[in-house]
Design brief:
18% strand, alpha/beta, elongated, 5-stranded mixed β-barrel, 810 residues
């Protein structure tokens, strides 16, 4: 052990990663090698008399470790002997030389090569006394440990007591006693002799305490057993250990109960084997062991899953139709699509679970439709809210090794439903986000893929769970926010905005009765006419759905309940006179007068996630030097629309009676009101063009005309999207005429008849049609609006020529 060691710096040598082994300087060790890279490295060193760097890998389960998988410190060693053993393995005998640390990972073929630097001991002269004191304490604790441990031989005891170099004492002890490889690595990585001895003293103190308890337990069991009965001896020893740990219950009986439940499930071989393995492990851990609590929770979770429990479907298309009619007003296409789905399920019960996405503005009944589908099919129902979810583990769960681990939301919903074929509603799927914790949308790909979700693996459960019988229903406000690979797995059903008449019927049939019941009132206590409800709808709410309307009705019910409870009145009748007194001032202005006009101001139409909106455009033309000012919180696409409109007007300046040099002599300010709201998109193109021409020519535009369409620099009008919602917004705000792109005429047949009756539509192929229709003469005389030649309007309704509407275009 006193042989002189020659340290070498910056040398490149082969390396072998050891599983659970740590080689110290001066130690001779035997170990078996099975990995091809390790065998090649040892053979190379043996053949060329080269040193080898032996380093411990952090995770013994890693088969092909790289630099992050091994510790930084190891031992430069020499191969003394190599023997082939059965199974294409080799047994190596090596002798450790000196500590070294990895400086660089050089290569991994044909074996791992690293650049290492020697790591000799660091001595601090001021620590000599403390180091010597630590050496004495270490020897004393070693003597105590040797007395308690039956595995310490006399030769080992002699070597420790006679070693004069105290810097090697800790290394020698660590190499020769049972010790976790992580603790050995800590001592190997410590270059200070004092630090190594201090760590070794702490470990021996812990081992001495454990050995003392073991000895005490053995003495207790020795008194009450018969030496000739080995089985009795083992049982008594287990009982003594449980008594020491205050474990009164029989862990073996609990494990047997789990085994019986597992076999009763009749799962596939892989799942049953893993569950039984965990139950056997629980029997060894005992009742109060913390790891036993983790295993018990995992087993309970797995056994609670509805592996073979399904809910029989009772599908009746007629009954489902009655249910949908009673729960929802309007939405004929949506109800028709749901009935088609139920009819297919009835004819083909073996059809695997489908994935449906209900998309539409807030408050239009998407979540309620999911509940109705579960009711109509007789299935169990579970809801999972995805809004704001950022962690992939919320979908797939956490590994059960983590403290507080639990399964993902999908498995929890399945467990809550208690059936393997429930309806699971994934609410607000477009509101998921991603960050450093992962992307939950990517985790949803496997869940919603009907080709692979028959073996979905949650990180916590770690067993294949069949989701192919689950009917997934998603809800979303804006499908453009759903990642494309995820969206491709869904069947889209769109829910449009409600018209005012639909809101009126919904309020009378559903909202008002529900709020009356909730507030303990009867129909006679609160009296509302249809005209008052219409006023409530357009003067106090501004939405695509009916949530705000229900809140206003709830306010009315509270006011009514207060008056009745205080004895002021027995009922409340809402009229135009007392409406503002009860509900406060009207929140939205009423519909404008029939024919007011504006110069340089045109009403456009916008489409948002909450439905359609009026988007006015205001333009001022001022004497200046040709500056163009754009305000109103505009996006890049809308700024480009302004530039396209300007180019279009310049190309038609002469024919429109505009000075061709107007863009040099004037400053033009284009403004979109409500500047706090971001605005973007190309569909305001014809609106900007019309407002610009109006401002430059002084020709007014009636405020009861609204328009939407993208414009090109050559004046063509291109199709846009969201026309159904936009036209509803136009009707709500009192518009009488709506100009639409000619390409959107194909969508007119799908519009609600009540909207058709309220609006007159003018299809436009070029901006000339738009200007002819919208601009009044400068003196205020209205020109007759004409349709462009060759445009034939669809005949879906008798009056489509006078009142046409369009739905969502492209």
């Amino acid at each position: 052990m006193n042989k002189r060691i020659i340290y070498k710096e910056n040398q490149i040598i082969p390396a072998v990663a050891l599983r659970g082994l740590t080689v110290f300087p001066g130690a001779i060790m035997h170990f078996d090698v099975g990995r091809e890279k390790s065998i090649r490295a040892l053979e190379h060193c043996m053949a060329h008399n080269l040193p080898v760097f032996l380093v411990t890998q952090k995770d013994i389960r890693e088969d092909d470790p790289s630099l992050p998988d091994i510790y930084k410190y190891g031992t430069v060693s020499y191969v003394k002997q190599l023997l082939k053993i059965p199974g294409n393995n080799m047994r190596a005998m090596v002798e450790g030389s000196y500590r070294a640390e990895i400086d660089e990972y050089v290569s991994d073929e044909p074996f791992i090569s690293v650049r290492v630097n020697a790591a000799p001991d660091t001595h601090n002269p001021r620590m000599m006394e403390r180091t010597e004191a630590a050496a004495r304490v270490l020897r004393d604790r070693w003597i105590t440990y040797a007395k308690l441990s039956p595995k310490v031989g006399d030769d080992l005891n002699f070597m420790v007591e006679t070693e004069s170099d105290y810097s090697k004492v800790a290394d020698f002890i660590a190499q020769n006693i049972p010790m976790p490889y992580q603790e050995r690595q800590k001592i190997l990585s410590e270059r200070r002799p004092y630090g190594r001895m201090e760590a070794m003293c702490a470990f021996l103190a812990h081992e001495i305490e454990i050995l003392s308890i073991e000895k005490e337990i053995q003495e207790k069991t020795q008194e009450g057993i018969n030496k000739n009965q080995k089985e009795y001896y083992l049982r008594e020893q287990i009982r003594a250990i449980q008594s020491e740990l205050d474990e009164g219950e029989d862990a073996a009986a609990e494990a047997e109960n789990y085994r019986r439940k597992i076999r009763a499930l009749k799962l596939d071989a892989e799942s049953e084997e893993k569950l039984l393995k965990e139950a056997n492990r629980l029997a060894r851990l005992g009742i109060n062991n913390p790891e036993g609590s983790v295993a018990r929770t995992w087993l309970d979770t797995c056994l609670d899953l509805p592996w073979h429990r399904s809910t029989p479907e009772e599908i009746s298309v007629e009954a489902a139709e009655k249910t949908l009619e009673s729960m929802f007003y309007g939405m004929e296409k949506v109800k028709e699509r749901i009935l088609e789905f139920l009819a297919v399920r009835k004819l083909n019960p073996d059809l695997k679970g489908q994935v449906i996405c209900l998309a539409g503005p807030p408050g239009t009944g998407k979540t309620s439709i999911g509940t109705a589908i579960a009711t109509a099919t007789g299935r169990k129902f579970a809801r999972v809210s995805l809004g704001g979810m950022r962690d992939e583990a919320d979908i797939r769960g956490h590994r059960k090794t983590y403290i507080g681990a639990m399964p993902g939301r999908i498995i929890q919903a399945l467990r809550l439903a208690g059936s393997n074929n429930p309806v699971i509603l994934l609410d607000e799927i477009d509101k998921m986000a991603s960050d450093f914790r992962g992307d939950p949308a990517s985790a949803m790909l496997e869940v919603l893929d009907t080709e692979q979700n028959h073996a979905f693996r949650d990180h916590y459960v770690e067993l294949p769970v069949d989701l192919s019988n689950v009917l997934f229903i998603m809800t979303a406000n804006d499908v453009s926010q759903i990642p494309r690979p995820l969206f491709d797995r869904m069947e889209l059903i769109e829910l449009g905005s409600y018209t005012d008449e639909e809101k009126l019927e919904i309020a009378k049939r559903h909202l008002l009765p529900r709020q009356l019941k909730k507030h303990g009132l009867k129909a006679a206590n609160l009296k509302l006419t249809d005209d008052i409800l219409r006023t409530l709808i357009y003067a106090y709410t501004h939405e695509s759905g009916v949530r705000s309307l229900e809140r206003e009705l709830a306010t009315l019910c509270r006011k009514c309940a207060k008056r009745i409870a205080s004895g002021e009145a027995k009922s409340l009748r809402l009229t135009d006179k007392n409406m503002e007194e009860i509900l406060g001032p009207k929140k939205f202005r009423e519909k404008p007068d029939a024919n007011p006009t504006e110069v340089g101001m045109v009403n456009g139409l916008a489409w948002t996630a909450v439905g359609g909106e009026i988007l006015p455009v205001e333009i001022n033309v001022l004497p200046g030097s040709g500056k163009i000012e754009l305000t109103g919180n505009l996006g890049d696409v809308m700024k480009e629309s302004c530039a396209a409109a300007m180019s279009c007007v310049r190309s038609r300046a002469v024919s429109l009676g505009i000075d061709p040099e107007f863009y040099k002599k004037n400053d033009i300010h284009i403004h979109f009101p409500e500047g706090a709201i971001p605005k973007d998109g190309p569909s305001a193109g014809i609106t900007i063009t019309t407002a610009l021409v109006s401002a430059l020519t002084g020709r007014p535009v009636p405020t009861n005309i609204a328009m939407t369409g993208e414009v090109t620099i050559r004046g063509r009008v291109l199709a846009i999207g969201g026309l159904k919602e936009k036209t509803m917004a136009a009707m709500r705000h009192g518009a009488k005429t709506v100009i639409i792109p000619k390409e959107n005429v194909r969508d007119l047949a799908e519009i609600d008849p009540k909207v058709r009756e309220a609006l007159h539509f003018v299809p436009a192929e070029t901006v000339d049609t738009v200007l002819t229709t919208a601009l009044l003469p400068a003196e205020g005389k209205t020109e007759e609006a004409t349709l462009p030649e060759g445009v034939a309007l669809p005949k879906a309704e008798p009056n489509l020529g006078e009142s046409m509407v369009c739905s969502k275009g492209r």
